[in-house]
Design a protein that fits this description.
With 176 residues, the chain is mainly beta. It contains one helix and ten strands, in the order αββββββββββ.
C-alpha cells in the first residue's frame, strides 16, 4: 500500500514540475494584406476555392521568450473558402529582436460574409526554433480581427517551455 501511495505522490510531483515549467506568452500582431500566391476554383460548387496565401506581420505588443521580444514574421497558409466559411492551415516563422527565430504550425476557421472573411479563431503549436529558442515547445490560441482596409490584427496567447537540449557528458577518461 505504501509503495502505491509513494508512486502516486511521485507521479503527482513529476506532473506538477512539468506544468510549472511552462511559461505564459501573449502578444498582438498587426498584419498587412494577404498576398495570394495562387488560387483555383474547386469546381464542385460555386464559391468553393483553394488558395495559397502569404502575409507579413509586425508585433505591436511583442511576445517575450527567453529574454527576447518578438518583432515580426510571416506566414504561408493553405486556405479553403466557400461562400460562408473559410479554413486556413499553415506555418508562421517569427523573428525575435535577438536574431533567434521560432516556427509555428496553425489552423483556424472563419465566417465569410459578402465574400470577405469576417474574422478567425484558431490554434497554434510551436514546431521549433533557433538559438535560445531551439527546442521550444508549447501551444495556444489566437483571434484574427479583420480591418476594413484588408489588414488584420491578431491576438495571440498560450504557453511555452524550452528544453535545455543539453545532454549529459560521459566522464573524461583518466590518464594512465
Amino acid at each position: 500500500m505504501n509503495i502505491r501511495i509513494m508512486s502516486i505522490a511521485g507521479l503527482a510531483l513529476l506532473l506538477a514540475s512539468t506544468v510549472g515549467a511552462q511559461t505564459k506568452v501573449s502578444g498582438k500582431q498587426q498584419c498587412g494584406k494577404s498576398e495570394v500566391v495562387g488560387t483555383a476554383d474547386a469546381g464542385d460548387k460555386p464559391g468553393h476555392a483553394l488558395s495559397l496565401q502569404k502575409v507579413t506581420c509586425n508585433w505591436g505588443t511583442p511576445m517575450e521568450m527567453a529574454g527576447a521580444k518578438s518583432k515580426d514574421g510571416s506566414s504561408v497558409a493553405f486556405v479553403e473558402a466557400t461562400s460562408t466559411r473559410s479554413t486556413s492551415t499553415g506555418t508562421y516563422v517569427g523573428n525575435m529582436d535577438s536574431g533567434d527565430k521560432f516556427f509555428v504550425s496553425f489552423h483556424d476557421s472563419a465566417a465569410v460574409k459578402d465574400g470577405k472573411t469576417v474574422g478567425a479563431k484558431g490554434t497554434w503549436m510551436y514546431t521549433g526554433g533557433t538559438g535560445k529558442l531551439k527546442g521550444v515547445k508549447g501551444k495556444g490560441t489566437y483571434t484574427v480581427t479583420m480591418n476594413a482596409d484588408g489588414t488584420s490584427t491578431v491576438d495571440v496567447e498560450g504557453d511555452y517551455e524550452i528544453g535545455t537540449g543539453v545532454k549529459a557528458k560521459a566522464p573524461a577518461a583518466k590518464a594512465k
